[in-house]
Amino acid sequence: MAQQGDETRRNGLAIALLLPIVLVNVGVFLYPVLNLLSTSFKEALPGGGIGTEFTWANWSTLVQDRFYMEALLRSVLMSLLITFLTLLCSYPIALYLHRSSGQWRTFLLVLVVSPLLTSAVVRTYGWVAVLADTGLIKNGLEQIGITLPFRLVYNMTGVVIGLTEILMPYMILALLAGFGRLDPRCEEAALTLGARPIQAFWRVVLPLTAPGIALGCLLCFVLAVSSFITPRILGGGRVFLLATEIYDQAIVTLNWPAAGTLSILVLVVFGLSLILYTRALRAFD
Amino acid sequence: MAPTRHPAKPLNMTLAEADMRHGTGQEEPAAGGFLSLQGLGKRYQGFTAVHHLYLDVPRGELVALLGPSGCGKTTTLRMIAGLTPVSGGRVLVGGRDMTSEPPYRRDMGLVFQSYALFPHMTVERNVAFGLEMRRIGRAEVAERVKEAVAMVRLQGLEKRRPRELSGGQQQRVALARALVIQPSILLFDEPLSNLDAKLRDEMRTEIRDIQQRLGITAVFVTHDQAEALAMCDKVAVMNAGRLEQLGTPTELYERPANPFVASFVGRINRLPAMAMGTKAKVGERELRLTQPMEGNIEVMVRPHRIQLEPAGSAATESTNRVQGEIRRTTYVGDLIQYVVHVDGLNWSVEQPTSASATLSPIGAKVDLSWRVEDTLAFKSAG
Fold this sequence. Notes:
heterodimer, A: mainly alpha, MetI-like fold, two-stranded antiparallel sheet, 78% helix, globular, B: alpha+beta, Rossmann fold, CATH 2.40.50.100, six-stranded mixed sheet, five-stranded antiparallel sheet, 18 strands, 25% helix, 36% strand
């Protein structure tokens, strides 16, 4: 009897502690998302108004208009590319960090995190200065007689370069968090068993770090798909992505139902990537 | 000359063949060991972990590197395996210089203290790993894995992951994984220190059995002197990066080369004395020494080599004798431990128990006597 009372009390406490966050999430996440969903089935009125009649119009436009489908495809493919490049650039750094120790490690960690202390807008303009036609790279290359036949900014190239750098801290931190299972002794064991370093990497290090890779990739993919400041600035208005289009529809065109429809589409993409992630995690185990 | 991968033996040899090959040991040159460390040293910034270490391990022998933590024994093992680069000296295996070979070309099996099993692979895959790295055919891998798994008695657990096994079972997988590649040398880095006492004893015997059956040359790092004495053909006692003494367990125990070895291997009582030839003065009393010495010395006696006798018993030619007072007695079943106050020092004395034995009372004056041969004497430091 007393035990049961204890349990009831403990459950009551758990509910009491969880209640605030549940309420906050219902209020600032669930309600707006449901609102978006219902907005996507409403007619857009001139001047930013939202109709009251139910309509499939937004969704049928979305499916029929090649522009949107291309933006979706471009968003997903570009984000996958950025995620892959971020992984490629971050993995060696994370591995090195994982193996270093003491003050050196602390110092390196601070270096990794420090970009997050400046706003993405500032860093993006920094990339404009570096990548522009009169910027550091093109200018520098011209000094030594190399003229790049293509632009590095105000196109897809600029967006990919900028976002890759901007997302690297997140990737490195996620990788580090996932490297818990990586015991340096395992690698040494592989070496003593006759594995060359590259074999030890493929057969032991990589599989053991797979959970971290999956986590980092999920995080970076989601951040890449949803980012719009960097694509807007570095894309120069020529790179049409889902996120930038949502921004345009909501803020510029004031077509809230269209923006809502696109937002729900992005949410579906996120949902699918989350499913893929959990599948991958289960496969590693 | 380009180094070939595994020149010492054909790859398709079964464990039984390896057995025979190791057993003969006739292809070895008479001088030096199969594994020979020549002036091996490791310096870190402002700190020398291992000083010019010379050590020969004959083919088929199990040699322990014994010492307190931080004495350089694990560093030495890692240098043998090629996991830690050497600062000086050479590592020879069968006369071949391995010093600059990477670990994957050394053909040595290493059993780690933490086992270092691959957590994402089953027992079977773990054991097969070394064979797959050697590009051995699928059928032969399967056969040799089966053989190795049987040798460490893990049949039926082949499909388990390491985390689904107990500590002792994980240790066996680690052993099988190292054995299956038929390494030229088997290295153990404190492999038993994570096991409980009973399992440790069991694994001790098992490792020794397998090592002797296969005739594998092995180096066993441990800080546990009982383990080193019980398992190994020879024991190399290390301290502060130096080799203090290399000898058989009996040699180390009965004829330690210096006070460090005497006190690290087994327990011992110490008593300062003044030596004059084969006699040593302790206060008013005289002790006989086995060898003539001069000046300040330290006399050492093992606790269980001492007899307790009533005070005032007559000394004989073949025994040494000091007086003391019993301060504490502890009955531990198979023996009684006494703390006896001798010349301002607490000595420990161990006596076997028997049904008729009576505990000497605390405060009793007793004579401690021991045979002259059991008297160890060392020059006092400084």
